[in-house]
Inverse folding.
């Protein structure tokens, strides 16, 4: 036998834990020649000493949150190549772990809330910025630098304590690759005397830099954080970068440098609350996905976001900004008011853009190549026309009302509405190409005006709209092209429509207004106050 999987299927009592421990202890004494051991939910709090006798063991995986410490005898398993502790509660590794000179993969515990890159756990998440790391990240002991064959190290927790590993030891790990999370909970200068450890890691393709929320309050501390970011500059082979809670007052030069020709995914979240400028990310030649969230110091985004080079008609150095970007997300930028500086030719392959929870944003550049757009919780955007958008998902609130009433959507084919207002008015004139209309999760919505005029429509989907009243549909829309779910009022009247008298257009509009006044009046009586028709959004 070379491989052994052990798992206890049911929860065991304290009494039977002793039995389980005894069985494992006896088993490990007999199976001295196994190469791979996988322990899952074994429901014991410590490992039997006999495990240290399996000298030929190359792979050890422990998946049990009852295990909170790793005994020193594990450091005598000199042939061990993979040590997987990701699903345990171990916070400190054995002090002699540096003896495992053949170790190639060290997977230390990470909190379940931690987001890894897309190739691991979907890095480019539209809403990743609520992430917070607890302080129980496992610390590494001194001696990690001896593991010169190490290729995988899931994270490194920078510490002030002398009994924990200095980050300078990473300089010895020249084979280190894959993904690493570096957590900086301290502003102390613990690595000023060592050379930058990541700049030589040519096999490292994913880096997550995460600062603690506390401990960087003064200007001196924030300057120290800026120095830390400069010190942690990675090799130019990096493909994925995520920076979280960076407290510095500005980004350093390598963030956005055009020398990072392989960088394809970038996330900046909860960074630089004193910073009022974004780095020149448009210079990254291979960047495909970009998420920027919760940077509340940003009020204006200009040409500097696209390039450090100043635009000049006579300059031959002008370059297209974001030449490879396909997806762009701005989220929770509370003070962001304007975005300009985008020139014709910029963002040539941008397919998707999301603007979410940017309530003050008004000035917005024309995007000539975007096909899919999501708008949620924004201001009255100053965009008169969306030239190329074919798919729009919008949460209709009061803030969007003015923009929706002015914007023209000549190429829009798929519209998804989540309404927070009582009335939405759709116009065939502004939506000449609309094929699919989906209305969902709109408890407040009572009426959708203008449905009958959307003659290009060939699919109508309405879900979770309990108060929505039926309106006349386009004559070109067949019954089988209408899908209704959890919208009882609309569905009931839709089924009864063949029995209703046919009204002329003026009579129909007059009837709609009467129904609306009656409904609002009844609502006002219930609340003990008079209510006028309000909260009307129009695309007319």
């Amino acid at each position: 036998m070379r491989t052994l999987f052990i798992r206890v299927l049911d929860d065991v009592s304290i009494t039977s834990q002793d039995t389980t421990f005894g069985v494992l202890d006896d088993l490990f004494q007999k199976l001295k020649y196994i190469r791979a051991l996988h322990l899952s939910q074994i429901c014991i709090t410590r490992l039997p000493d006999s495990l240290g006798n399996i000298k030929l063991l190359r792979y050890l995986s422990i998946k049990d949150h009852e295990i909170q410490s790793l005994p020193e005898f594990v450091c005598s398993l000199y042939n061990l190549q993979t040590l997987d502790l990701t699903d345990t509660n171990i916070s400190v590794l054995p002090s002699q772990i540096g003896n495992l000179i053949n170790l190639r993969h060290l997977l230390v515990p990470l909190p379940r809330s931690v987001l890894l890159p897309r190739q691991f756990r979907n890095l480019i998440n539209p809403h990743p910025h609520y992430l917070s790391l607890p302080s129980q990240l496992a610390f590494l002991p001194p001696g990690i630098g001896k593991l010169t064959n190490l290729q995988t190290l899931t994270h490194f927790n920078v510490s002030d304590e002398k009994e924990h590993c200095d980050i300078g030891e990473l300089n010895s790990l020249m084979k280190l690759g894959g993904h690493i999370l570096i957590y900086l909970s301290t502003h102390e200068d613990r690595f000023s005397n060592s050379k930058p450890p990541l700049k030589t890691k040519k096999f490292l393709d994913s880096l997550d830099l995460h600062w603690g929320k506390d401990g960087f309050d003064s200007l001196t501390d924030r300057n120290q954080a800026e120095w830390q970011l400069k010190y942690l500059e990675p090799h130019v082979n990096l493909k994925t970068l995520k920076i979280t809670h960076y407290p510095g007052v500005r980004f350093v030069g390598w963030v956005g440098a055009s020398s990072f020709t392989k960088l394809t995914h970038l996330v900046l979240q909860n960074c630089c609350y004193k910073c009022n400028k974004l780095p020149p990310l448009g210079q990254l030649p291979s960047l495909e996905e970009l998420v920027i969230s919760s940077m509340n110091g940003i009020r204006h985004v200009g040409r500097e976001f696209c390039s450090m080079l100043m635009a000049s008609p006579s300059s031959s150095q002008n370059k297209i900004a974001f030449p490879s970007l396909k997806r762009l997300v701005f989220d929770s930028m509370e003070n962001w008011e304007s975005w300009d500086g985008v020139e014709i030719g910029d963002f040539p392959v941008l397919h998707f853009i999301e603007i979410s929870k940017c309530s003050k944003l008004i000035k917005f550049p024309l995007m000539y190549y975007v096909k899919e757009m999501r708008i949620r919780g924004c201001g009255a955007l100053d965009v008169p026309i969306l030239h190329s958008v074919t798919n729009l998902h919008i949460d209709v609130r009061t803030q969007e009302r003015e923009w929706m009433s002015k914007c023209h959507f000549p190429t829009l084919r798929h519209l998804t509405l989540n309404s927070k207002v009582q009335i939405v008015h759709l116009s065939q004139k502004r939506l000449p190409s609309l094929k699919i209309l989906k209305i969902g999760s709109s408890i407040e919505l009572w009426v959708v005006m203008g449905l009958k005029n959307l003659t290009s429509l060939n699919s109508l989907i309405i879900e979770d709209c309990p108060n929505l009243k039926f309106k006349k549909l386009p004559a070109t829309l067949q019954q089988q092209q209408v899908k209704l779910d959890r919208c009882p009022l609309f569905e009931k009247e839709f089924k009864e429509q063949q029995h209703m008298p046919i009204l002329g257009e003026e009579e129909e509009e007059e009837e709609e207004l009467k129904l609306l006044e009656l409904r609002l009046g009844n609502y006002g009586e219930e609340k003990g106050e008079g209510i006028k028709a309000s909260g009307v959004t129009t695309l007319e």
Notes: The first strand starts at residue 3 and ends at 7. The helical segments are 14-30, 118-121, 219-231, 401-406, 488-495, 505-527. The chain has six helices and 25 strands. The CA atoms of residues 517 and 533 lie 7 Å apart.
